[in-house]
Specification:
Blueprint: H1 11-27, H2 36-54, H3 60-76, H4 80-83, H5 87-107
Helix pairs in contact: 1-2, 3-5
Length: about 110
């Protein structure tokens, strides 16, 4: 979903940061099973995604962009967010969906 990069909504910076971290993770070529570079890239990507999920949109376009980005990323990752409902992942996802619903209600 295209968006205005200069929008004041913090959502866009978090999405951009995750895109960069995800690209860096995908570009990592593991040298061994316990490659520290790959582990660091994986950790950075996970933290950037957590930041997207924790950022409350401040505009309707930001809310829409955030929701679309998370849904598209989940599809690209073959359901990583929605099929691995471990407590570690389910709680941030549920918190994110609740926060997003509240943001949309407040902005509507």
């Amino acid at each position: 979903m295209p968006y205005a990069a200069d929008a004041p909504d913090p959502t866009f910076a978090r999405i951009d940061a995750h895109r960069l971290a995800y690209a860096a993770f995908l570009a990592t070529e593991p040298k061994s099973l316990d490659d520290p570079d790959e582990e660091a890239a994986c950790q950075a990507e996970a933290e950037a995604l957590d930041a997207v999920l924790a950022t409350k949109p401040t505009t309707l376009v930001g809310a829409a962009a955030s929701l679309r980005y998370v849904l598209d990323h989940d599809e690209e990752e073959r359901g990583r967010l929605t099929t691995r409902f471990e407590e570690k992942l389910a709680n941030p996802l549920l918190d994110y969906l609740g926060m997003l619903a509240a943001a949309l209600e407040a902005l509507a």
